[in-house]
Amino acid sequence: MNPFLALRGQPQAVELLQQALLKDKIAPAYLFVGSPGIGRKIAARAFAQLLLAHHQPPDKQALIYKKVEAKNHPDFLWVEPTYQHQGQRLTATEAEAAGLKRKAPPQIRIEQIREISHFLARPPLNAIRAVVVIEDAHTMAEGAANALLKTLEEPGRATLILIAPSGDSLLSTLVSRCQRIPFYRLAHKEMGEILRAKGYGEIADNRVLCAIAQGSPGEALLAAEQLAAIPPELLHKLATPPTSPQQAIFLAKEIDQTLEAETQLWLLNYLQYTYWQKYLKNPRHSPPLEALEKARQALLGYVQPRLVWECTLLQFCSHPTALASR
Predict the structure, then answer these.
(1) Has UniProt tagged this entry with the keyword Protease (predicted)?
(2) What is the distance between the alpha carbons of residues 230 and 67, in angstroms, rounded to a whole number?
(3) Which pLDDT tens digit goes with each residue over 200-255?
(4) Is 169 helix (H, G, I), strand (E, B) or coil?
(5) Who's near 269: CB < 8 A, 6+ residues apart?
(6) Spatial CA neighbour of 108 closest among 148, 143, 80
(7) Percent of the chain residues past pLDDT 70, beyond the cut
(8) What is the 3-state secondary structure (H, E, C) of 15-32?
(9) Which of 135, 145, 226, 309 is deepest in the core (most CB within 10 A)?
(10) Distance of alpha carbon 13 from its chain centroid, rounded?
């Protein structure tokens, strides 16, 4: 069984990693770069399975694959960003399950880097090397990154895999110690095939969701979740830009009272794509889409959401298209 069979649309990455295994030239550290949702984590897990099963008898390989899948292999450590809450570190999944909400995103903390050092301080127990995967490595603060740098300089009998959107998102000293493995966004057809194969045909057929995803099946699934969080009646009202100040004010109030901040940000993106596709053949009738981008920046700057939406939707009303349709 080849664990890379679960990864689709990344032939270059698979070839680079398989050649490293075939030639037994494993780098001390790898940097998997690319957009979220295109297979970086699938590739990291598959490569870890093959590394830990390397030179192991065939009858043991299947068990090793299962242990890595469950993240309970003694020589495997998967590290992901965490929140700090009441003296405990919680992953994004754990925080959501606990009902915790945070304005700042989770991050890789210096305590986690120290745990990696302790993990690698002992020799591997069941494999010829240990494997550490650091998910969203770009969320490390400078102190954590500097601590990791010391580990990369002397990894011992281990291979580290860092996952990040780009090399620019990490310290250059970290990047220079890693072999870069690029991952690319998928073509629209290929992304649709992957979504349909996983039972998400409706998402694959949604032009707006696919446009937002921009070649990332994972982003398409997240977009579908965000869309499901918005009441259908509200989406129906927003399908066409408001044409009167009263309608704009009521819509702004409903958005502010109904949707959380993260969903409001996503809605701006959704409206940009929706209106752009709707008025693609007649751009003169399109509302001022730049107003939506300004609204995004205002929300990110913690401006009062209701005020942001009122100003944005009122601009639609004052647009020549809206005035002509009254």
Answers:
(1) no
(2) 38
(3) 999 999 989 999 999 999 999 999 999 999 999 999 999 888 989 999 999 999 99
(4) helix
(5) 212, 296
(6) 80
(7) 94
(8) HHHHHHHHCCCCCCEEEE
(9) 309
(10) 18
CB neighbour class for 183 (10 Å; exposed up to 12, middle 13-18, buried from 19): buried
CA-based nearest residue to 128, from 42, 60, 32, 178: 60
Rounded mean pLDDT, 188-206: 93
CA nearest 44: which of 19, 79, 74, 72?
79
Say whether 161 sits in a helix, a strand or coil. Answer: strand
- d(CA 111, CA 155) in angstroms, rounded, equals 18
- Amino acid letter, residue 277: Q
* Residue showing tokens 């990894």: 155
Tokens of 144: 């954590």
Phi, psi of 92 (to 5 degrees): -60, -40
Closest CA to 196 of 185, 211, 184, 210: 210
Handedness of CA 272, 275, 276, 277 (dihedral sign): positive
Query: Rounded to the nearest 10 degrees, how much is the dihedral formed by the CA atoms of 70, 73, 77, 79?
Result: 10
- What 288-291 contacts at long range (C-beta under 8 Å, 24+ apart), as own/partner pairs, is 288/315, 288/316, 288/319, 291/315, 291/316
Q: Write out pLDDT tens, residues 28-82.
A: 999 999 999 999 999 999 999 999 998 888 889 999 999 999 999 999 999 999 9
The pLDDT, as a whole number, for residue 87 is 83
What span, in angstroms and rounded, lies between the C-alpha atoms of 235 and 237? 5
- On the question of pLDDT at 324 being above 70, the answer is no
CA distance 239 to 177: 50
β-pair type (130-134, 29-33):
unpaired
| pLDDT beyond 70 at 10 | yes
What is the DSSP pairing of strand 88-91 with strand 82-85? antiparallel
